[in-house]
Amino acid sequence: MKVSPEIYKDDQKLVLLAQKDRNAFGLLYEKYFERIYLFVYKRVQDEAKAGDICQEAMLKAMFNIKKYENRGAPFSAWLYRIASNEVNLFFRKSKKMVSVEIQEKDLKDIMSEISLQKIDDQDQQERLIAALNTLKPEHSEIIDLRFFMRYSFKQIAEFYNITEANAKMRVYRILERLKKGWKTK
Amino acid sequence: MRTYKVNRTKKPKVPSKETIEKYKDFTSLSHEYDKMVKRPKVPLYKDKKMFLVLLLIVLIAILLSQAGDEKSAEEDIESIDTEQIVD
Protein backbone atom coordinates (compact mmCIF):
# COMPACT_ATOMS: atom_id res chain seq x y z
CA MET A 1 0.00 0.00 0.00
CA LYS A 2 1.34 3.42 -0.96
CA VAL A 3 0.34 6.86 0.27
CA SER A 4 1.59 10.37 -0.35
CA PRO A 5 4.56 11.56 1.77
CA GLU A 6 2.23 14.05 3.46
CA ILE A 7 -0.07 11.34 4.74
CA TYR A 8 2.93 9.16 5.64
CA LYS A 9 4.18 11.92 7.93
CA ASP A 10 0.83 12.28 9.67
CA ASP A 11 0.38 9.46 12.17
CA GLN A 12 -3.25 10.21 12.86
CA LYS A 13 -4.12 9.85 9.18
CA LEU A 14 -2.21 6.59 9.02
CA VAL A 15 -4.06 5.36 12.09
CA LEU A 16 -7.41 6.21 10.49
CA LEU A 17 -6.39 4.28 7.39
CA ALA A 18 -5.25 1.32 9.50
CA GLN A 19 -8.53 1.33 11.41
CA LYS A 20 -10.40 0.97 8.12
CA ASP A 21 -8.06 -1.38 6.29
CA ARG A 22 -5.80 -3.85 8.08
CA ASN A 23 -3.25 -3.78 5.25
CA ALA A 24 -2.72 -0.07 5.92
CA PHE A 25 -1.22 -1.04 9.27
CA GLY A 26 1.77 -2.02 7.17
CA LEU A 27 2.56 1.67 6.77
CA LEU A 28 2.77 2.16 10.53
CA TYR A 29 4.75 -1.05 10.79
CA GLU A 30 7.20 0.17 8.17
CA LYS A 31 7.51 3.55 9.84
CA TYR A 32 7.99 2.39 13.42
CA PHE A 33 9.50 -1.08 13.31
CA GLU A 34 13.11 0.08 13.58
CA ARG A 35 12.43 2.47 16.48
CA ILE A 36 10.41 -0.09 18.40
CA TYR A 37 13.04 -2.75 17.72
CA LEU A 38 15.81 -0.54 19.11
CA PHE A 39 13.68 0.36 22.11
CA VAL A 40 13.09 -3.31 22.89
CA TYR A 41 16.72 -4.22 22.15
CA LYS A 42 17.99 -1.64 24.64
CA ARG A 43 15.95 -3.29 27.35
CA VAL A 44 16.55 -6.97 26.57
CA GLN A 45 19.97 -6.72 24.85
CA ASP A 46 19.39 -9.76 22.68
CA GLU A 47 18.81 -9.39 18.93
CA ALA A 48 16.62 -12.46 18.39
CA LYS A 49 14.53 -11.91 21.50
CA ALA A 50 14.11 -8.25 20.60
CA GLY A 51 12.87 -9.33 17.16
CA ASP A 52 10.29 -11.71 18.65
CA ILE A 53 9.10 -9.23 21.25
CA CYS A 54 8.87 -6.46 18.67
CA GLN A 55 6.81 -8.64 16.34
CA GLU A 56 4.51 -9.61 19.22
CA ALA A 57 4.07 -5.96 20.18
CA MET A 58 3.25 -5.02 16.60
CA LEU A 59 0.71 -7.83 16.42
CA LYS A 60 -1.00 -6.55 19.56
CA ALA A 61 -0.97 -3.01 18.17
CA MET A 62 -2.51 -4.24 14.91
CA PHE A 63 -5.15 -6.17 16.82
CA ASN A 64 -6.05 -3.19 19.01
CA ILE A 65 -5.68 -0.38 16.51
CA LYS A 66 -9.47 0.05 16.31
CA LYS A 67 -9.53 0.81 20.04
CA TYR A 68 -6.84 3.48 19.75
CA GLU A 69 -8.02 6.99 20.61
CA ASN A 70 -6.00 10.13 20.11
CA ARG A 71 -5.72 11.75 23.55
CA GLY A 72 -3.07 14.25 22.64
CA ALA A 73 0.03 12.12 23.09
CA PRO A 74 1.86 11.01 19.95
CA PHE A 75 0.81 7.72 18.42
CA SER A 76 4.36 6.43 18.89
CA ALA A 77 3.91 6.66 22.69
CA TRP A 78 1.05 4.16 22.41
CA LEU A 79 3.27 1.80 20.43
CA TYR A 80 6.18 2.16 22.87
CA ARG A 81 3.82 1.42 25.74
CA ILE A 82 2.66 -1.81 24.13
CA ALA A 83 6.28 -2.77 23.42
CA SER A 84 7.27 -2.01 26.99
CA ASN A 85 4.45 -4.18 28.33
CA GLU A 86 5.68 -6.99 26.13
CA VAL A 87 9.22 -6.54 27.47
CA ASN A 88 7.94 -6.65 31.06
CA LEU A 89 5.96 -9.77 30.23
CA PHE A 90 9.09 -11.35 28.77
CA PHE A 91 11.06 -10.63 31.96
CA ARG A 92 8.25 -12.00 34.11
CA LYS A 93 7.90 -15.19 32.05
CA SER A 94 11.59 -15.99 31.64
CA LYS A 95 12.61 -18.68 34.07
CA LYS A 96 16.29 -17.88 33.81
CA MET A 97 17.66 -14.67 35.23
CA VAL A 98 18.20 -12.23 32.35
CA SER A 99 21.07 -9.85 33.00
CA VAL A 100 21.00 -6.45 31.37
CA GLU A 101 24.17 -4.44 31.02
CA ILE A 102 24.25 -0.80 31.98
CA GLN A 103 27.01 1.63 31.20
CA GLU A 104 29.21 2.89 34.00
CA LYS A 105 28.48 6.46 32.94
CA ASP A 106 24.72 5.96 33.34
CA LEU A 107 25.28 4.50 36.77
CA LYS A 108 27.37 7.50 37.76
CA ASP A 109 24.56 9.78 36.61
CA ILE A 110 22.14 8.08 39.00
CA MET A 111 24.70 8.30 41.78
CA SER A 112 25.18 12.02 41.33
CA GLU A 113 21.40 12.49 41.01
CA ILE A 114 20.92 10.97 44.46
CA SER A 115 23.93 12.98 45.70
CA LEU A 116 26.17 10.04 46.48
CA GLN A 117 29.82 10.72 46.88
CA LYS A 118 32.67 8.62 45.51
CA ILE A 119 30.89 7.91 42.27
CA ASP A 120 34.05 6.31 40.87
CA ASP A 121 34.23 3.81 43.69
CA GLN A 122 33.37 0.41 42.21
CA ASP A 123 32.08 -0.96 45.51
CA GLN A 124 29.61 1.91 45.71
CA GLN A 125 28.55 1.23 42.13
CA GLU A 126 27.97 -2.43 42.91
CA ARG A 127 25.88 -1.41 45.90
CA LEU A 128 23.76 0.76 43.67
CA ILE A 129 23.35 -2.12 41.21
CA ALA A 130 22.18 -4.29 44.10
CA ALA A 131 19.70 -1.59 45.12
CA LEU A 132 18.45 -1.25 41.53
CA ASN A 133 17.91 -4.98 41.38
CA THR A 134 15.47 -4.77 44.26
CA LEU A 135 13.23 -2.25 42.50
CA LYS A 136 9.74 -3.26 41.44
CA PRO A 137 9.44 -3.81 37.65
CA GLU A 138 7.28 -0.70 37.19
CA HIS A 139 9.88 1.39 39.00
CA SER A 140 12.86 0.00 37.15
CA GLU A 141 11.00 0.72 33.92
CA ILE A 142 11.02 4.46 34.70
CA ILE A 143 14.70 4.31 35.70
CA ASP A 144 15.45 2.53 32.42
CA LEU A 145 13.67 5.20 30.44
CA ARG A 146 15.25 8.13 32.24
CA PHE A 147 18.84 7.03 32.83
CA PHE A 148 19.60 4.18 30.48
CA MET A 149 17.53 5.24 27.48
CA ARG A 150 18.02 8.97 28.05
CA TYR A 151 14.35 9.92 27.82
CA SER A 152 13.45 13.50 28.64
CA PHE A 153 10.72 14.14 31.21
CA LYS A 154 8.48 15.19 28.32
CA GLN A 155 9.01 11.83 26.61
CA ILE A 156 8.38 9.96 29.86
CA ALA A 157 5.19 11.97 30.30
CA GLU A 158 4.04 11.04 26.80
CA PHE A 159 4.98 7.42 27.40
CA TYR A 160 2.76 7.14 30.49
CA ASN A 161 0.19 9.66 29.25
CA ILE A 162 0.75 11.84 32.32
CA THR A 163 1.89 15.42 32.84
CA GLU A 164 5.55 16.36 32.78
CA ALA A 165 5.40 17.40 36.44
CA ASN A 166 3.96 14.02 37.33
CA ALA A 167 6.71 12.27 35.37
CA LYS A 168 9.37 14.24 37.29
CA MET A 169 7.68 13.41 40.56
CA ARG A 170 7.64 9.68 39.77
CA VAL A 171 11.34 9.65 38.85
CA TYR A 172 12.39 11.59 41.94
CA ARG A 173 10.26 9.46 44.26
CA ILE A 174 12.05 6.36 43.06
CA LEU A 175 15.43 8.06 43.42
CA GLU A 176 14.42 9.14 46.91
CA ARG A 177 13.55 5.55 47.73
CA LEU A 178 16.94 4.39 46.45
CA LYS A 179 18.63 7.04 48.55
CA LYS A 180 16.70 6.07 51.69
CA GLY A 181 17.57 2.41 51.18
CA TRP A 182 21.19 3.46 50.82
CA LYS A 183 21.22 5.35 54.09
CA THR A 184 19.62 2.55 56.08
CA LYS A 185 22.29 0.10 54.84
CA MET B 1 13.33 -12.00 36.13
CA ARG B 2 16.19 -9.72 35.29
CA THR B 3 19.20 -8.21 36.95
CA TYR B 4 21.40 -5.30 36.07
CA LYS B 5 25.13 -5.58 35.73
CA VAL B 6 27.59 -2.83 35.02
CA ASN B 7 29.60 -2.71 31.82
CA ARG B 8 32.90 -0.95 32.45
CA THR B 9 34.79 -1.79 29.31
CA LYS B 10 32.79 -2.59 26.20
CA LYS B 11 30.99 -0.04 24.11
CA PRO B 12 27.26 -0.72 24.00
CA LYS B 13 26.38 -2.80 20.95
CA VAL B 14 23.77 -1.39 18.61
CA PRO B 15 22.17 -3.70 16.05
CA SER B 16 22.89 -2.80 12.42
CA LYS B 17 20.21 -1.81 9.92
CA GLU B 18 20.64 -5.19 8.20
CA THR B 19 20.01 -7.03 11.46
CA ILE B 20 16.85 -5.04 12.09
CA GLU B 21 15.67 -5.66 8.52
CA LYS B 22 16.12 -9.38 9.14
CA TYR B 23 13.42 -9.29 11.80
CA LYS B 24 11.08 -6.99 9.90
CA ASP B 25 8.40 -9.07 8.22
CA PHE B 26 4.93 -7.66 7.75
CA THR B 27 3.73 -10.69 5.76
CA SER B 28 4.26 -13.05 8.68
CA LEU B 29 2.63 -10.51 10.99
CA SER B 30 -0.43 -10.45 8.69
CA HIS B 31 -0.60 -14.26 8.76
CA GLU B 32 -0.42 -14.23 12.55
CA TYR B 33 -3.17 -11.61 12.61
CA ASP B 34 -5.37 -13.72 10.32
CA LYS B 35 -4.87 -16.72 12.58
CA MET B 36 -5.99 -14.66 15.57
CA VAL B 37 -8.97 -13.08 13.87
CA LYS B 38 -10.38 -15.83 11.64
CA ARG B 39 -13.18 -17.97 13.00
CA PRO B 40 -12.41 -21.67 13.51
CA LYS B 41 -12.96 -23.66 10.30
CA VAL B 42 -15.03 -26.40 11.95
CA PRO B 43 -18.30 -25.13 13.43
CA LEU B 44 -18.79 -25.88 17.11
CA TYR B 45 -21.51 -28.50 16.60
CA LYS B 46 -19.27 -30.47 14.16
CA ASP B 47 -16.46 -30.71 16.70
CA LYS B 48 -17.04 -34.04 18.55
CA LYS B 49 -15.94 -32.81 21.95
CA MET B 50 -17.82 -29.55 21.67
CA PHE B 51 -20.92 -31.43 20.46
CA LEU B 52 -20.86 -33.61 23.57
CA VAL B 53 -20.39 -30.57 25.80
CA LEU B 54 -23.30 -28.78 24.11
CA LEU B 55 -25.45 -31.93 24.41
CA LEU B 56 -24.63 -32.18 28.11
CA ILE B 57 -25.55 -28.52 28.65
CA VAL B 58 -28.88 -29.01 26.85
CA LEU B 59 -29.67 -32.17 28.89
CA ILE B 60 -28.87 -30.43 32.17
CA ALA B 61 -31.07 -27.51 31.15
CA ILE B 62 -33.98 -29.87 30.33
CA LEU B 63 -33.57 -31.77 33.61
CA LEU B 64 -33.45 -28.56 35.60
CA SER B 65 -36.56 -27.17 33.93
CA GLN B 66 -38.43 -30.48 34.53
CA ALA B 67 -37.37 -30.52 38.17
CA GLY B 68 -38.61 -26.93 38.47
CA ASP B 69 -41.98 -27.87 36.92
CA GLU B 70 -42.44 -30.84 39.27
CA LYS B 71 -41.62 -28.71 42.29
CA SER B 72 -44.11 -26.01 41.34
CA ALA B 73 -46.78 -28.69 40.63
CA GLU B 74 -46.21 -30.17 44.10
CA GLU B 75 -46.50 -26.71 45.65
CA ASP B 76 -49.78 -26.14 43.79
CA ILE B 77 -51.19 -29.43 45.10
CA GLU B 78 -50.09 -28.60 48.65
CA SER B 79 -51.72 -25.17 48.51
CA ILE B 80 -54.97 -26.68 47.19
CA ASP B 81 -54.91 -29.26 50.03
CA THR B 82 -54.40 -26.63 52.71
CA GLU B 83 -57.23 -24.50 51.23
CA GLN B 84 -59.57 -27.51 51.40
CA ILE B 85 -58.62 -28.18 55.04
CA VAL B 86 -59.31 -24.54 55.94
CA ASP B 87 -62.72 -24.74 54.22
Strand and helix map with partners:
The complex is a heterodimer of chains A (185) and B (87).
Chain A (H helix, E strand, L loop, with lengths): L4 H5 L1 H10 L4 H20 L2 H18 L10 H19 L4 E6 H10 L8 H12 L3 H12 L4 H8 L3 H21 L1
Helix pairs in contact in A: 2-3, 3-4, 3-5, 4-5, 5-9, 9-10
Chain B lengths: L1 E6 L9 H7 L2 H12 L10 H39 L1
Could you characterize what this model shows?
The complex is a heterodimer of chains A (185) and B (87). Chain A has ten helices and one strand, in the order αααααβααααα. Helix content of chain A is 73%, strand content 3%. Chain A starts with a helix and ends with a helix. Chain A is elongated and about 55 Å long. Chain B has 87 residues and is mainly alpha-helical. Chain B has one domain (17-86). Chain B has helices at 17-23, 26-37, 48-86, and one strand spanning 2-7. Chain B is elongated. The model of chain B has no long low-confidence stretch (mean pLDDT 84). Chain A binds chain B through residues 22-23, 26, 29-30, 33-34, 37-38, 41, 45, 47, 50-51, 54-55, 58-59, 62-63, 91-92, 94, 96-104, 107, 122, 125-126, 129, 132-133, and chain B through 1-8, 10, 12-15, 17, 19-20, 22-26, 28-30, 32-33, 36-37. Strand 1 of chain A pairs parallel with strand 1 of chain B, so a sheet runs across the interface.
